[in-house]
Amino acid sequence: LSVNAPPNEAEVAGLRQIVQESSAYIDALQPQIIKAQETLSALMGLQETASRRIADAKRILHPMRSLPQDILTEIFLSCTPSPLPSKPSLEHLHVCYRWRETALSLPRLWSM
């Protein structure tokens, strides 16, 4: 296989046997490959589920969720420009339910 000379009859027979045996070996490997791909796909699905659970837990554990109401109120009031523009900023209303309720309960935020 490492020379450019044409193969003799014995080499041709050996090469044909290599082709035949290797083809059969590849055919025998195919079901194992399919099974391994299915296993990999299932494992990747489990990994994705675990990653989503981690992300959800981290969002719940984030320190911003445990800020006391009075500090959250001060943050909102400090972030509001003075004098108020003609249209108040509404970004903090879309963060989460707690922030929305806090912001809507602050008359000072809407009447400055």
Describe this structure in words.
With 112 residues, the protein is mainly α. It is built from 4 helices and no strands. The protein is rod-shaped and about 100 Å long. The termini are far apart.
In short:
About 70% of the residues lie in helices and about 0% in strands. The protein is an all-alpha fold and about 110 residues long.
Q: What is the end-to-end distance?
A: 88 Å
Helix share, percent: 55-70%
Beta strand count: 0
On the 0 to 100 scale, the average pLDDT is: 87
Helices, by number, come to 4
Q: Structural class, from secondary structure content?
A: mainly alpha
Question: Radius of gyration in whole Å, from Cα?
Answer: 34 Å
Please describe the biggest sheet, giving its number of strands, its sense, and whether it closes into a barrel. none
Compressed to H and E, one letter per element, the order equals HHHH
Approximate strand percentage: under 5%
Instruction: List segments where confidence is low: pLDDT < 50 over at least 5 consecutive residues.
Output: none
Shape: rod-shaped
Keywords summarizing the entry:
single chain; 112 residues; mainly alpha; 4 helices
Furnish the topology, listing elements before pairings.
Elements (H helix, E strand, L loop, with lengths): L8 H53 L7 H11 L17 H8 L2 H5 L1
